[in-house]
Amino acid sequence: MTVATINPFGSRTTVHLSPEDYEAIARELDAVRDEISADLGERDSAYIHRIIRLQRGLEIGGRALLFASSLPPAWLAGTATLTVAKILENMEIGHNVMHGQWDWMRDPKIHSTTWEWDNVSPAEQWKHSHNFVHHTFTNVLGKDNDVGYGILRVTPEQKWHWANIPQPIYNALLAMFFEYGVALHDLEIDKVREGTNDPEETKEKLRAIGRKIRRQWTKDYVAFPLLTGPQFLSTLAANFTANVARNVWAHTIIFCGHFPGDVEVFEEETLEGETKGEWYVRQLLGSANISGGRLFHLMTGNLSHQIEHHLFPDLPSNRYAEIAPRVRALCEKYDLPYHTGPLRKQVTSTWGKIVRYAFPGGSRPNEDQA
């Protein structure tokens, strides 16, 4: 067996795979995709319609409770219900619909080209920065802007700068207002700082973001609070709280799928001549799952199956749970890591890295133990 190093940094994972192994991995994972795609049908369609009905019912119920938001029990119940509705809309519905996971149904109301989510990030910009850039160049430094979101040092391979020192504070603020960070993501702030961006394109993107923010603020902070009349201020506070809670949850799940413990990053040279099998292995090494039950997976938008999502981003999310054991078995077969753990572990690991890499130096977890 020949030796190929998929991680040119030579850090924790050196993958010993022959070209034939990569080809076999591609065939096996392509077969999983083909099998699931051929099996999509009524039960999948019923699932997404059921989740959309549930989400809309929760939103209507939450907003109805806020008509009595001056009463603490009604405020708490309304805020909690609205928070769950917003989480479901953004994660299990919006994120996955805009990935094209349900385009096979050919339903113009549940289609990646028509869905606009309950978020200040314009759908078109998100689809470019996420669907194309992130999922094509997953964890490649200099290509994938999701590695640290342009403001955080999350791996020792990133150059340290004194501005990284307060990054735990940056991250806490990013969590609270995550939708705004996502909205700015497609601007490619690094290019703006370096002056290599197209000024007119940047201005147009900013105008689109401004329009979306006005739309969201009008809905959550003007229209619905006004509908509750004398409960205006308490409803306004409830809507703000629901948005922040949704943002913190989304930030937590997404960061725990990309940055904990042993998740790898790659140099740009990894992309040179990259085969389908090597792309699949890069997704495996650059992702982490979060273990939990069915309700937990639903509330994460099934992004708790981040490995399966990175392998098959356009397969319906309700199928990731049945795909996961097959992917894990493949990892065992080829002696590849399958990063997974409970939420508590992944959160601790992710925040631990953010705090550690705020300072110069640093090494990977296994190197610390060596």
TrEMBL record:
Record-linked Pfam families: FA_desaturase
One GO CC term, this protein: membrane
One annotated GO molecular function: oxidoreductase activity, acting on paired donors, with oxidation of a pair of donors resulting in the reduction of molecular oxygen to two molecules of water
UniProt superkingdom: Bacteria
Fatty acid desaturase domain span: 74-340
InterPro entries: FA_desaturase_dom (IPR005804), Fatty_acid_desaturase (IPR012171)
Any one of the GO BP annotations: lipid biosynthetic process
PANTHER family: DELTA(5) FATTY ACID DESATURASE C-RELATED (PTHR19353:SF19), FATTY ACID DESATURASE 2 (PTHR19353)
Name of protein: Acyl-CoA desaturase
Source organism (scientific name): Actinomadura rudentiformis
